[in-house]
């Protein structure tokens, strides 16, 4: 059992990857922003903050936008590792409303709970020595610039049809999901015993989008993740995926859009990912 991102990280792709980023159409959005060179927070924290705040600013409910952070806080508290984690998380959430300094600072602290949901074992190993570092001035300004770029992007490529989507079947049944995990057989919408969890960023009318706040170009792991999302959407049975004909990636650091028509991906590659990576 693995998440989409975990499966992507361990599966050995052919040289160059199943789908090369060079095969995507790339479009640079020009603006006058110059990002500060240094940030005092890790790239994963900055990326999560940009992702979740973008969702909130674009109209998502705050609890939906920071859903994984809140679930992480709940897990940390239930395990008895972080007393009062939910109270802390909810207090931080109340202080998040836009892209002002206080909202950004609170968001940076709130997303540190994500690891308890995404990788509980790692969280347990680092919890004793972990220390929350607030973002400095350069980091706050960079996050705001990245958010402005993200909002500008949606002004051109939106509107958003859905954010924070998953691949569960239209009629969810927890018992059916548990049976698949227990027996190692069958499927649950787009999920399999091999890839049993994972959710995506954004859907528009015809495109499945992923946000990657990267200092370098996207890799074959990023493109495989996108392709897996599209395939799992097609297997999910959800109507919203029927009109999705393109996969896209937006990197606000480089202000670059990457787009690809799924119809241009060879069918044998799609079948290989279905059979060997996701294991339908």
Task: Give the count of helical stretches.
Answer: 12
Number of strands: 8
* Helix-strand makeup class: alpha/beta
Strand order of the largest sheet: 2-8-7-6-5-3
The outline comes out as globular
Mean pLDDT rating:
94
Order of secondary-structure elements: EHEHHHHHHHHEHEEEHEEH
Number of domains: 2
**Low confidence ranges:** none
What percentage of the residues does DSSP assign to strands (E)? 5-15%
- Rg calc: 19 Å
- Into which percent range does the helicity of residues fall? 40-55%
What's the N-to-C terminus distance?
13 Å
Main sheet summary:
6 strands, mixed
What does this structure look like?
With 280 residues, the protein is of the alpha/beta class. It has two domains: 1-33 and 158-280, no CATH class; 41-135, no CATH class. It is 46% helix and 11% strand. The protein has twelve helices and eight strands. It has helices at 4-10, 43-57, 62-65, 67-78, 85-94, 101-110, 114-118, 120-126, 137-157, 174-183, 220-236, 267-278; strands at 2-3, 25-28, 162-163, 195-197, 202-203, 207-211, 246-251, 256-261. The strands form two sheets. Strands 2-8-7-6-5-3 form a six-stranded mixed beta sheet. Helix 4 packs antiparallel against helix 5 and helix 11 (220-236) packs across helix 12.
Q: Topology, please?
A:
Layout: E1 2-3, H1 4-10, E2 25-28, H2 43-57, H3 62-65, H4 67-78, H5 85-94, H6 101-110, H7 114-118, H8 120-126, H9 137-157, E3 162-163, H10 174-183, E4 195-197, E5 202-203, E6 207-211, H11 220-236, E7 246-251, E8 256-261, H12 267-278
Parallel strand pairs: 1-4, 6-7
Antiparallel strand pairs: 2-8, 3-5, 5-6, 7-8
Helix pairs in contact: 1-11, 2-9, 4-5, 5-6, 11-12
């Amino acid at each position: 059992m693995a998440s989409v991102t975990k499966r992507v990280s361990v599966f050995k792709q052919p040289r160059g990857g199943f789908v090369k980023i060079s095969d995507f159409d790339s479009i640079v959005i020009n603006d006058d922003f110059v990002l500060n060179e240094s940030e005092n927070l890790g790239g994963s924290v900055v990326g999560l903050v940009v992702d979740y705040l973008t969702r909130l600013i674009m109209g998502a409910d705050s609890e939906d936008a920071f859903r994984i952070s809140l679930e992480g806080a709940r897990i940390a508290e239930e395990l008895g590792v972080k007393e009062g984690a939910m109270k802390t998380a909810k207090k931080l959430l109340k202080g998040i409303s836009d892209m002002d300094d206080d909202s950004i600072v609170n968001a940076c602290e709130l997303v540190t709970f994500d690891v308890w949901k995404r990788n509980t074992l790692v969280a347990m190993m680092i919890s004793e020595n972990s220390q929350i570092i607030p973002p400095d001035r350069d980091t706050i300004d960079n996050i705001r610039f990245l958010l402005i770029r993200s909002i500008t992007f949606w002004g051109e490529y939106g509107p958003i049809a859905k954010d924070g989507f998953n691949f569960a079947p239209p009629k969810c049944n927890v018992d059916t999901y548990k049976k698949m995990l227990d027996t190692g057989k069958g499927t649950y919408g787009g999920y399999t015993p091999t890839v049993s969890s994972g959710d995506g960023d954004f859907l528009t009318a015809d495109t499945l989008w992923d946000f990657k706040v990267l200092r370098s170009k996207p890799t074959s792991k990023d493109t495989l993740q996108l392709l897996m999302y599209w395939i799992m959407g097609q297997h999910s049975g959800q109507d919203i995926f029927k009109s999705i004909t393109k996969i896209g990636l937006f990197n606000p650091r480089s202000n670059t859009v990457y787009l690809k028509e799924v119809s241009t991906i060879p069918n044998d590659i799609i079948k290989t990912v279905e059979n060997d990576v996701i294991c339908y």
